[in-house]
Amino acid sequence: MNAAFRRRAAILTALAALSTWASAGAAHADAPDARMLLVKHRAFVGWQLGDGTFRSLRLRAQYADAQGKVSRTVTELRRGLIYRATTTFAGTAGASQDEGFTGGVFWNSNVNGFTTPAYGEPAKFRFSYDLLANEGTSSLDAIARGESTIDGTRCETLRLDVPNADPIDVDVDPATGAYLRAVVDPGGAYETVVRILSYDEVLPGKRLAAALRFDDSNESYRYTKVEPNVAVADDELHPPPARATWAFAQPQPFAVNVTATRVLVDASVNGLKGRFILDTGANGIFLNEHFADAAKVTKLGAAGAAVGLYGGRSADVRRAETITIGGNTLSDVIVEAEDFNSNDYFGLDRRNYDGLLGYDLFAGAIVRLDFRAAAMSLADPAEPPAETPPLSVAVDTSLGVPMVPMTLDRSIGVRAMLDTGDPSGVVFGPDILYRYHLRMARNIGVGLQYGSVECGNLDSLELGPITYSGELACKLDSPLVAGKNILVGLDFLRNFELLFDYPHGRISFDAHHR
Prior knowledge:
The structure is a single chain. The protein is mostly beta strands and 514 residues long. The chain has eight helices and 37 strands. Strand 5 (106-109) and strand 6 (115-118) form a beta hairpin.
């Protein structure tokens, strides 16, 4: 863990205190029926967080579809609420990513070993899920919220209050006390449905939730091996060291080409010069396969995937020796390659661009982008920036893209993906329109390459204290903008000077006058 990461760990001391509180089991349910159900659940699993039953856990799990095809394997290490989970993807030559909780800060680490923290709303969600996964819920305050039916079983629904974090709804089988379903952050921007498919007895009379399904996924998450109370060393719980490394040789700004629809950056891969789209909406660095071949970027013999608003496409996993940008060099970095000229690759203008510079450019550097000056700079995150724009917000990069809290029309709180690679203003899914009742000032039909979509002008779009009016927004049925997720593209972002500081979990904004 680098020094900059350690310096920010104290920001979640309140959550660390919650960890101690949960272990002590301090609260009781308010309603008698709710209390009885939580006591019954505790009796069903036979333990609760902090009672000494499981001092540590080493678990192995896999994601598999109904036919048993495994897409990912996971190793989890736990000591109470402190954990590290390592996910390895099938067919990717052993590429893996990690996440965890130190007791003071939640963190994520991608396939190149770039580690970024999670603060604010993402941390609240993850703390609540951590309590659920570690049987830390039976001592929470709760209220009964009526009945539900899960796979034919009548259940009682309880709303669990997690202090300073997200609430959890649990559907309890009154006959057994088992949780059959849980919803973390119900109705919120991070709402996640967890179906508990089965429990396994790990020690005599001690059960763990052993098979889960998340949201509407067709895959289940199943523990295949559970080792209780085995040695778990401190360093096994730490984030991994970075596998790709930066050499920052030039802190001065360098020119970029800001067009009406793109931010274009010149860079060299293995010494071969190319032109790339700066794309915060890409969860890695993607190369046009023809350019990757010419640059002799090593194939790893594994398959990857590129996911966009309009669906996913297979990609070829490779390793670049060097990527040099503005005099600064990123070495030994895993990238993916795809044919950008095939079907215009999600709207890349048929300009034969050489690639997309996404998450791995930003995750290990501080990146300043000044639209007005058409300039960009890269800096070492170990050195605090000399000047920071006035508005700073916590950013969630757990999915490899920057997500920040915003508000539509002064009433709808959303998770906004900031996407410099998308030329649009705002893109949202059907839920925002029909479930959360967004009202646009006027509706217009816009014909796009991928079909006609419904668009209109927002009454307001709020980012902290900054409010914009009349921003163009379009509805699109895409999993990337499901629920309360939206995309905010270049048309909005070009109004700011931006400081991307993923290593410290922040993005800062300085508004230009429109």
